[in-house]
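subagent[fold] <- orchestrator: predict structure for attached chain, return tokens only, no commentary.
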Amino acid sequence: MRLLLPITTILIALALLLPGVTQPVLTLEGKIDKSKLAKTGIAMIADEGDRNTRNMLMMASSMLGLDKLEGEISAYKKTRSIWGTVNELANNKNYLVAALVALFSIVVPALKLLMQLAYCLIPMNKFKHILGQVIQGLSKWSMVDVFVIALIVAYLAGNADSQMGELINMHAEFGTGFWYFTGYCLFAIAASSLIKVTPKNS
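subagent[fold] -> orchestrator:
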């Protein structure tokens, strides 16, 4: 009966991990102010001509009301899950980073939870003691999950910035995958605190 709570916690963490990895974690949307876009476009065209051309373009812009345009247009939108980010990194030939993200956000968490589940279910023996030591070793990497999310946010933001520059007004929104992954992290921490690894001599 005393194992019911840790086992339940582990199963919930496993159930949250799958959508946490496959569902969208972050959506980045970039919008450009219409008047700013028109002004920048005219300035770029004017740079190619002489002073008279620049003055004529500015006058035409003012007459057409391009400098008084209101509203924004969508220029960039990207939604990614953890697994989608791994695929994108691999497609961009960032194989090492893709492998590290996959390892620490998918493989290690799933492996640790499955080992904790096995530790709860098997009787005390030499194998269980070794398994307990491995679980304790993996616990040192518990904060890597948070690092992975930060890495994905930074990657998406940097990717957007490099494509759009200063013209774009970025807006970020967390997706359902972020909340599932957060739930997994909380239940994984709870599971680790509920499981007491028994020393070999006890």
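orchestrator: received. Logging for downstream: The chain has a mean pLDDT of 76. The CA atoms of residues 148 and 196 lie 27 Å apart.
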